[in-house]
Design brief:
Layout (H helix, E strand, L loop, with lengths): L3 E10 L2 E11 L4 E5 L6 H9 L6 E6 L2 E2 L10 E5 L10 H11 L4 H15 L14 H13 L5 E5 L7 H18 L2 E6 L2 H7 L2 E6 L2 E6 L1 H6 L4 H6 L6 E10 L3 E6 L4 E5 L9 E6 L13 E10 L3 E8 L2 E8 L9 E4 L7 E3 L11
Parallel strand pairs: 3-8, 3-9, 6-7, 7-8
Antiparallel strand pairs: 1-2, 1-4, 4-5, 9-10, 11-12, 11-14, 12-13, 14-19, 15-16, 15-18, 16-17
Amino acid sequence: MGHIKLANVTKAFGAVKVLHDINLEIEDGELVVFVGPSGCGKSTLLRMIAGLDRPTSGELAIDGKVVNTVPAADRGLAMVFQSYALYPHMSVRQNLAFGLENTRMPRAEIAKRIGEAARMLEIESYLDRRPGQLSGGQRQRVAIGRAIVRRPVAFLLDEPLSNLDAELRGSTRAELAALHARLGATMIYVTHDQVEAMTLADRIVVLRAGRIEQVGTPLELYNKPANRFVAGFIGSPHMNFLEATFNGSTADTARLSLAGGHNLEIPVSRQAADGARVTIGLRPQHIKLEDGPGSLPATIRLVEALGAETVVHTDVAGQRVLVVAPGQHDLTLGEQIRLSLAAAPLHLFDEKGLRLGEPV
């Protein structure tokens, strides 16, 4: 079992409140990712679940039992840190065995668990090496193995890949996803990298300034962000935002006026009062480099030719717009082009940054 529930949880350090009224339920076997910018409270939230910090108020329950005052060692959880936290004078085998030996577990059971974890993580060939003889990726596997041998109620991973280079992060991320599928255990994963969140999570918890902004599957957050912050944080490259105002309507459409005198028409179901200020959200992958009805004039400011795709930085009446175009394109700086929004779902946000209706 690995069901975790937080009800009205807050955390303050003195007069500074860092978590505000957190309500969250994590189901047994889920891989939930806490994501958000630095200082948003995601690591503090993980430390409270682990028992390294206590909530200031509210209740934290594991498998139905309130554990607010239960010590970390008695919660049945295993934590993996970004720093690996391995004992440098011990071999890999000794590092894996250390925590089990402290519980006076029989040697035969310890050996069995180490063997299972080593096979699962493919670290059998260096069980007798010390951490200093391993690469960063190998050390991270050992740190995860040390958690696996404990057979915990849930795994808590605090930015475990942040010390790895880009290529190794990608391969280790895939290994973690496969590991979760094999174990079927509850995992809570903290990262500031939204790509990691999108590729690993069953559900993502987006935090900002100590508050939960939205909880949902990766595609729910991508397709229907609750507010402008989530829209800009989830997706790579991030969503484009264009400031506009409502400017009249017909029987079935409403007009949005952009800077530079450009207009867009949208279904009347998205209508607001004339003169109301809104923000239009557009994914870079949904904008086309072509002319047509409703297209916008743009000036090219930068071209990133990546081979399989081209990232084009443009200026639309003083507002920056990124376009991700499949394939290779012959474009030059300063060139005047047209951007078609015909296939682009439009996300609208009000002046407070809250979502207006469904994408169209």
